[in-house]
What does this fold into?
Amino acid sequence: MAAAGGEEAATAGALFRASSNLSGELGDGTTNDSRELDPPFIQVGSDTDWAFSNAAGDGTQAAGICYSIKTDGSLFIWGNAANGKLGNGTTSPNICSPVQLGAAEWALAGGGYKMSFAVKTDGTLWTWGYNDWGQLGHGNTTSTSSPVQVGSLTDWSTTIAPAGGYGMMSAIKQDGTLWAWGLGQWGQLGVGSTTDYSSPIQVGSDTDWIAQSRNLGPFQSGFMGMRGTSGVNGTLWACGNGYYGQLGVGDTANKSDLTQVGSLTNWKTISFGYAGCAALKYDGTAWSWGQGYSGVNGDGSTTDRSSPVQMGALTDWTKWVRPSRYAAMGFRPGSDGTVWMTGYGAAQCGVSFTGVGFSSPVQLSSGTGWIDITSSQGTGSYGLRGTGPVCP
It folds into this structure.
């Protein structure tokens, strides 16, 4: 199973989380805050067959929700139940431990602002939750607390995850075309207008989309996508709100048409956070842009950046995620398997409440067995998958 962002999926492992846990998104059956623990990451049960993990929030620490899929295709969801985004037919109570949704037939899952989505192994796309702008893609603005199929097509990608943002989402089909729907206020759908759409509409005519990411910032809403050949090369394209320079195109203007980020063709992964973006190149270097608060861009400053800047000098990064306004996390490959962070060293990164902002990458704890990282936007909840005992 491949993951979003253009990278190959890691092998299965144990699942760990760190969180404020106000909605039970830690998954340990409690609402106890883990962030002041050392290390802060708590294992979710004892299973080691987790193959995919994702998370979402709505910009507050009280709305976290987690999605994880096992190697047999079974999907488990837990956390905040508001707006029906757990998919279990209700809007309460919150669920503090993993609960399976439906049969073992899922390939990918995730969420946007107050809504959830998942792709089945048969290529069908399903959404549920809040729907005021048509972000569920059902041709209406009716909310639902149970999964509803988006149209009748069976050709949605089962290897490139859909991307959910503030009031909109997008997905890539198996033929490499990009589709978007929902709120278009800042041009974030990329169709040349600020119109809302309640059903999927194709973005351009290109057929080589290999990755995508959206953010949950209500006033910084945008899209970052990658075109190219997976495993070989990629160009970056952006649209939406550019207030902090988070589109990476050298200015702070809004864009309703897809605009290329520079001219480079060696991008590998992308992660669009609350008001900024992190990305890797195929040479192993990490890059960031957008709001620079607390040093989250990792370039040794707290300056906002409207074009990519390198994060430190290392050249062996495997992944960076930038989910929140204040922090980002990355990890290094293979036997090293260490996890690093930039930005505010507290809720967003599972570090004790130091109140310190790190403007260059610093290592978290002493664990060396991590194989993947994922995070929710704005909830202070992070997830890690590892190989078991070697993880913190």
Notes: Residues 6 and 199 are 26 Å apart (CA to CA). Residues 1-9, 378-382, 387-392 have pLDDT under 50 and may be disordered. The chain has one domain: 14-386. Residues 14-386 form a domain with the Methylamine Dehydrogenase; Chain H fold (CATH 2.130.10.30).
